[in-house]
Structures are given as C-alpha cells and as structure tokens.
Amino acid sequence: MKITLTRNIIILALMACFSQFALADNASAQKTIATVLHNLNHFPSDADKAALMAISEDASVGRGYQALAGAVANISHSATAEGKEITARIIDAAAAPADLKTLAGIVASISHVASADAKATLAAMM
Fold first, then answer.
1. Does the residue 10 lie in any domain?
2. What is the pLDDT of residue 52?
3. Mean pLDDT throughout 2-18?
4. Can you tell me the distance from the alpha carbon of 32 to that of 104, in angstroms, rounded to the nearest whole number?
5. Which long-range contacts (CB under 8 A, 24 or more apart) does 43-48 make?
6. Is residue 90, in this structure, part of any structural domain at all?
7. Is residue 80 in a domain?
8. How many structural domains are present in the chain?
9. Per DSSP, what are the bridge partners of residue 43?
10. Mapping DSSP to helix (H, G, I), strand (E, B) and coil, where does residue 29 land?
11. Measured between alpha carbons, how far is 30 from 124 in angstroms, rounded to an integer?
C-alpha cells in the first residue's frame, strides 16, 4: 500500500512537471505568434517564418499553437483558405485556451496588417 501511494505521488509530481513545460512552451509559442502578428506587414519575414515553422514542428507545443503557427507562416496579405479553416476549428474548439482563440480570431481577420485593436491585444500577449 505504501509503495503504491509513493509511486502515485511520484507519477503526479512528474505529470505536474511535464505539464508546466508544456504550458511554458505554449506561452513561448503564444508570445512568438503574437509578436509576428503585431509586426506583420503583408506577410511574415523569412526570420518570422523560420520561427513559426519551428513552433509548428515542436512536439512539446500544443497542437492548436502548432497549427496556428503554420497558418501564420503562410499569410500573404491575409490568411489562406486553409489558414482560415484552421482558425475556425480553433475558435470552435471548446477545449482551446482563450488566448489561442483570440490569436485565431486575429489571424482570420488580418488584411495586410493587424487592426489597431488587434495590435493592442497582441501587445498585451507579447
């Protein structure tokens, strides 16, 4: 009984550690995506695209952030049809974090640059 309890405590502690890493990775991804969108001028720079593609391929980042990073990397004046589909799925996902949904809404509405209101929201996320 004591061994099982100790083992369960260790498992819970490890799970908490790993979830904190995932949260940290999502926070970093969110900050990067917000910064790119805030500074966006028609399309992401090559450096921005590289950072976004790194997020989209990072298994430690949540799938929603991965997908959104890929959608942002492909913006050319506005989100592509696939990017708009991704943003719609994120917005409709009950389990998606509020900040991810906010970013998805901004991506879906981008036309060449983020609006003044969107830039204010993004600045708070950076």
1. no
2. 96
3. 46
4. 14
5. 43/75, 43/76, 43/77, 44/72, 44/73, 44/75, 48/73
6. yes
7. yes
8. 1
9. 41
10. helix
11. 11
The shares of helix, strand and coil residues in the chain, as percent rounded to the nearest 5, are: 75, 5, 20
Structure tokens at 74: 């492909």
Per-residue pLDDT for 12 more than 60? no
pLDDT at 15: 44
Residue 11 placed within a domain? no
93 is in which domain, residue-wise?
23-125
pLDDT at 3: 52
DSSP string, 55-96: HHT-TTS-HHHHHHHHHHHT-BSB--HHHHHHHHHHHH-TTS
Write out pLDDT tens, residues 70-99.
Answer: 999 999 999 999 999 999 999 999 999 999
